[in-house]
Amino acid sequence: METAVTIVTFRDIFQDEAAKKSKFTDEFRDLCARILLDKQDMASLGLKDGQKVRVQSEVGSVIVIAKTSDDDPHPGLAFMTFSPWSNQLAGEDACMSGARIAAKLSPSDESVTQISELLQRMRAQGIST
Amino acid sequence: MAICTGCSLLCEDIELTVKDGDISHVRNLCRKGHGHYQALLTERARPMIDGKEVALDQAIAKAAEVLHSSKAPLLCGWSNATLEAQTAGMSIAKKLGASICDTSPPCLGALMERIISGRIPTCTLDDVRNFADVSVFWGSDPSNSHPRHLSRFSYYPRGEKRQKSYEEERTCIAVDVRKSATATLCSNYYFRMQPGGDGEFIESILATLDGRIPKFGDKKRMIELGTILRKAEYGVIFPGIGMLYSLQNRLELFETLLAKLNEIATFKVVPMVERFNSRGFYQLLHAPGNSLAAAAKGCDAALVVGSDPLAELPLATARALARVPLIVIDPHRSLTVDAASVVIPSAISGMEAGGTALRTDGVKISFEPIIESDLPSDEQILAKILEAI
């Protein structure tokens, strides 16, 4: 089961507050590792609120929690907070919040991607002094 | 009164009580500012070299050594650093022949260049409070990004010419792809568009202003929007990254809209930069087109000040930075700090260190330290590095 969506990133004050305190907390992860989907997309993926979904873009992938958006209907359009999780999916030209990312969604049983894993991926090609 | 450096509004009315060297009570902070002040006590960085804790001076000496031996150093970040620290960074860049750029997106740089050079008319947020009767939040959501924007400047306050304020005299319009918190506040004047539809939306407004039928969007609603804009005495547009990203190389279309609006009424643009001194860096460096993505790929060492690029940049650019030795000057632990070869902890600007910064509208704000700290400021650390290289 797979659905194609365009993800638009946005700013969230609760996530910003959590980020200022620490980016290494469960609170910050829970506010970042989530995707807001239209009711119709949730149904076509067979997802209920709080279930996990793999988000795969051309650049990378993350496992996040799916939630039904309370916005007006927007099938095919998904929203994620601008965060290290959305940045794993974003192309080089992406512009912080407001970036548009083409992605495919599929239900997942894997664990939500942790921040330590994101850092590991960034450093995968890295070197140290 | 203290200044909050939690975002680029630099709120100057923070009331606090300092007891035994610590903050005991605070008033007037927004949620974001509250997180910023709480960060005084959480996840403070420690001086490190290759993961081992060292003395602060050793970390500074190592930073100078790495930078000195680098053939293509990059100095990046700067959005959360004072004007004094940014100036010191530019001196280091000059001495080393290093690249220097911030972590803001290129599309914001294109707007800032036009505002700073006067191609796009601008005003201060105090002018907005005193005179504006129409505020347009286009691809921006200050209720989340700049939480006190509406209450201090753009919607709720009474101003010199706007004594009846939001109850009778101010109209707030939101143009966005999602019903953000600000769009919800604007209720009747929320205009939804498809992602990437900003160019068409501008063309539709231009059509209604010319008395033509708009080709895109709900025609009745577009004509309604055109009427509000036409009747405005002093309108202000607050473009967010969403709009700038969508327009990309078509920013001249936005300029055309402003020229047209200014034939009818007074219309200004106030940028919505996020970090507390992003505006300062734009104004000091004034070098549009500096691409961090390209600079990151070409560097062999990087000094990061007042920023967490590994958390904020797309994967490819973050990887390019993570492959080189990173020197990070930051008050807090961050993703970039965790990946750094050298970590130099600094005092928090606005709380433990004083300085000056430019608010998002370009107004210079000065601040003094409000509590004592043993840690040096970014500026002091950079001065030591400059001396040592």
Q: What's the helix and strand layout?
A:
The complex is a heterodimer of chains A (about 130) and B (about 400).
Chain A: E1 3-10, H1 13-21, H2 26-32, E2 34-37, H3 39-44, E3 52-57, E4 61-68, E5 77-81, H4 84-87, E6 100-107, H5 115-123
Parallel strand pairs in A: 1-5, 2-4
Antiparallel strand pairs in A: 1-6, 3-4, 3-6
Helix pairs in contact in A: 1-2
Chain B: E1 15-19, E2 22-27, H1 31-38, E3 48-49, E4 52-53, H2 56-69, E5 73-77, H3 83-96, E6 99-102, H4 106-116, H5 125-131, E7 134-138, H6 142-145, H7 149-154, H8 165-168, E8 171-176, H9 181-186, E9 190-192, H10 198-209, H11 219-231, E10 234-239, H12 241-247, H13 251-264, E11 266-269, H14 278-285, H15 292-298, E12 301-305, H16 309-312, H17 315-322, E13 326-330, H18 335-338, E14 342-345, E15 355-358, E16 364-367, H19 378-388
Parallel strand pairs in B: 5-6, 5-12, 7-8, 7-10, 8-9, 10-11, 12-13, 13-14
Antiparallel strand pairs in B: 1-2, 3-4, 3-14, 15-16
Task: Provide tags for this entry.
heterodimer; A: 129 residues; alpha/beta; Barwin-like endoglucanases; 6-stranded mixed sheet; 5 helices; 6 strands; B: 389 residues; Rossmann fold; 7-stranded mixed sheet; 19 helices; 18% strand; globular
Beta-strand fraction estimate of chain B: 15-25%
The side-by-side strand order for the widest beta sheet of chain A comes to: 2-4-3-6-1-5
Distance between the termini of chain B: 39 Å
Biggest sheet of chain B: strands side by side, in what order? 4-3-14-13-12-5-6
Helix content of chain A: 25-40%
Which CATH first-tier class of the largest domain in chain B would you pick? Alpha Beta
CATH class of chain A: Mainly Beta
* CATH overall fold name of the largest domain in chain B: Rossmann fold
What's the structural domain tally of chain A? 1
Largest interface chains and counts: A-B, 52 and 64 residues
Total domain modules of chain B? 2
CATH topology label of chain A? Barwin-like endoglucanases
Number of helices, counting only DSSP H or I runs of 4 residues or more of chain A:
5
Distance between the termini of chain A: 45 Å
Overall body shape of chain B:
globular
Main beta-sheet strand count, sense and barrel state of chain A:
6 strands, mixed
Query: How many strand units of chain A?
Result: 6
What is the CATH-assigned architecture of the largest domain in chain B? 3-Layer(aba) Sandwich
Low-confidence stretches of chain B: none
Main beta-sheet annotation of chain B: 7 strands, mixed
Q: What is the averaged pLDDT score of chain A? A: 92
